[in-house]
Amino acid sequence: MKNKYDIIWLDKVDSTNDEARRRINACDNLSVVTALTQTHGRGQRGNSWSSAPGMNLMFSIVLKDLNVRAYDQFVLSEIAALSVTDFLSLHGIKAEIKWPNDIYVRKRKICGILVENSCRGEWLSSSIIGIGLNVNQRNFDVNLPNPTSIVLETEEKDELDLHECLEDFMHLFSRYIGRYLNITGGYMKLRKMYLSLLWRKGDWHAFRDLASDAEFVGKIAGLSDIGHLVVETQEGGLREFAFKEIGYIL
Ligand code: BTN
């Protein structure tokens, strides 16, 4: 049976998100652009994304003709993160979601997600979901904070087949899109699943308020409607943070 999605495999690009954006008019919904090497892999907050050539998955999914309001755009981060945690479960790895878009195994980062949306009026017109998932890499740059990979977490002796991994991932991802995106109550179900996997939820931890650069102790209480992080403070109040307004102290 033919897949519902096309996967374009490339040897080397600057960034699969940028390549997907350049190809967007020629791509169908749910097309994937993936590369063995990125010369300018991009991460969140203007960071770069580095990965040993050919060892890991680096890919971008093109979503078009979305029936999603700009107000609800966090739903795409939820779908991406949940697809990754489901994929890791297939390999016996219990992963959690570090708000908004990182996937952690205990204190180690195994995957980063970069969602780039375009809006037309109050609707999303397209989205590029870029995913960097560490699969076969065993040794990482010492400057990377706490990286891990599937082979390290499973003590796999053999390398995993990246083509197979991406097919399996896309199967899960497209199922989430079909099941929850245009279904009544779908957003609520996604939010519940996302919250159940939220890293450091419900315990007291140190955070940094990036506006004032002040450290504080807080407890993640949940998310606002639009996906901002809601944190309970020790004084008993609730504070809401957008992405780039709060940092975790690890
Ligand atoms: C982060 O953790 O900061 C997000 C990292 C996202 C990396 C992926 S790799 C594939 C896609 N192309 C990019 O340039 N970035 C994303």
List the keywords:
alpha+beta; seven-stranded mixed beta sheet; globular; binds biotin; 5 helices; five-stranded antiparallel beta sheet; 24% helix; 250 residues
Integer-rounded radius of gyration:
18 Å
Question: What's the pLDDT, averaged over the residues?
Answer: 95
Helical segment count? 5
Q: Please outline the major beta sheet.
A: 7 strands, mixed
Percentage of residues in helical conformation: 10-25%
What is the first-to-last residue Cα distance?
Answer: 45 Å
Summing up helix and strand content along with how strands pair, one would put the structural category as alpha+beta
Written description of the protein model:
This protein has 250 residues and is of the alpha+beta class. It has five helices and twelve strands. It has helices at residues 16-23, 74-90, 150-154, 162-181, 186-196, and strands spanning 7-13, 31-38, 57-64, 96-98, 102-105, 108-120, 123-133, 204-209, 214-223, 229-233, 238-241, 246-248. The protein has a seven-stranded mixed β-sheet with strand order 1-2-3-7-6-5-4, with helices on both faces. It binds biotin. Biotin binds at residues 15-17, 38, 41-44, 47, 49, 58-60, 102, 112-114, 130-132.
